[in-house]
Amino acid sequence: MKNFKAGQYVNQGTHKSFQPSEIDRKWKIRDMALINLLSQADRQLGRLDMYSEYIPNIDLFISMHVLKEASQSNKIEGTKTNIEDALLDREDVNEEKKDDWEEVQNYILALNTAITNLEKLPFSSRLIKETHKILLKGVRGKHKLPGEFRSSQNWIGGASINDATFVPPSHTTINDYMGDLEKFVHNDEHKLPDLLKIALIHYQFETIHPFLDGNGRIGRLIIILYLVEKGLLKKPILYLSDFFERNRTLYYDNLTRVREKNDLIQWSKFFLVGVIETAQNSIKTFDNILKLQKEVDSKLQKLGSRANNAQIIIDYLFQRPIINAQKAKELTNLSLPTVYKLLHKIEGLGIIEEVTGAKRGKLYLFKEYVKLFE
């Protein structure tokens, strides 16, 4: 990594594009501070992975992590939807927030579909394109070639390409660069620890910027796809968008530093710190979820004969922590008046909170649970 050359600017006539060096080659690590961080990151990732084996109903909790990831990843791109908004059904979303809400829902669907597709498709350009197609379907980027690499020059920052902050490589070289990235992913001859490998893959993907829109979201999404495919995580439970959002300036500065100063070490250290912090925070969240489960179970015992139906509602809320009376009726097979009484009782225990203030169309939020992810 010490002699790494990020690439060079090439004159394209009206502008200069940055043409990165290919990454499918041998790598050597000599920085002891980086090796120490790598050891810590591997250890924290292993601890987190353990939770996917021993926590009951882990898939229920993963759905909330995905929701948080979608909200934070889209937030980096300027979308203003928080977790509570993202939980709503489309008809309950304010008109001015609908576009943002749609983008978050697309991200959730794209991530879940990509994880499922890993069972039949390897980490590849094809998988990335199919995921991108879902991401942009019917939203603001729907006219920007969903599922296809760009066929024109793009740029980052600035009103035009002439005052751009960064101009990615020419569109004519995209297939070659993505082919090199794909080879690097699957090349086991060039030994490089997986966490350093995905740090490099993420940097290279963001530098290539192969799509006209959605590069940032796809670039963050491929991190979890890589970790799951390579077996570093059994379940998709590590999401770095929150870390990148909280350290947004550093995130962009470190990516830029690689291109301008060939400093891949600093970017890799930043990425590993993100893995360490995110894994530790996720472990803390899982511990708090288990603690909350026990507290809720204890409160439900006060409902006597109603406890079983209340538990059915709570089980649902741990997966999707917002509910209306109609949904509770479907889950419990109780009459609507009885459901309202039951929801009122659960609210009286301080477990859920009515959030609309309306007489009709009431929505009940499992607020303490949502807080664990905010």
Summarize the structure.
The chain has 374 residues and is mainly alpha-helical. The chain has helices spanning 32-54, 58-76, 83-87, 98-117, 125-136, 174-186, 194-208, 215-229, 241-246, 248-261, 264-300, 307-317, 325-332, 336-348, 367-371, and strands at 7-11, 16-20, 322-323, 353-354, 364-365.
Structural features:
374 residues; mainly alpha; Fic-like fold; Arc Repressor Mutant, subunit A; 2 domains; two-stranded antiparallel ribbon; globular
**Anisotropy-based shape:** globular
Look at the helices and sheets and give the structural class. Answer: mainly alpha
Please identify the top-level CATH class of the largest domain: Mainly Alpha
> Separation of termini?
37 Å
Instruction: Count structural domains.
Output: 2
Number of discrete helical segments? 15
User: Low-confidence parts, pLDDT < 50 over ≥5 residues?
Assistant: none
Strand content: under 5%
Based on the coordinates given, report the CATH architecture of the largest domain. Orthogonal Bundle
Helix content: 55-70%
DSSP E strands, number = 5
Strand order of the largest sheet: 3-5-4
Order of helices and strands: EEHHHHHHHHHHHHEHHEEH
Could you tell me the CATH topology label of the largest domain. Answer: Fic-like fold
How would you name the CATH homologous superfamily of the largest domain? Fido-like domain
Rg result: 23 Å
The biggest sheet, with number of strands, parallel, antiparallel or mixed sense and barrel status, is: 3 strands, antiparallel
- Mean pLDDT equals 92
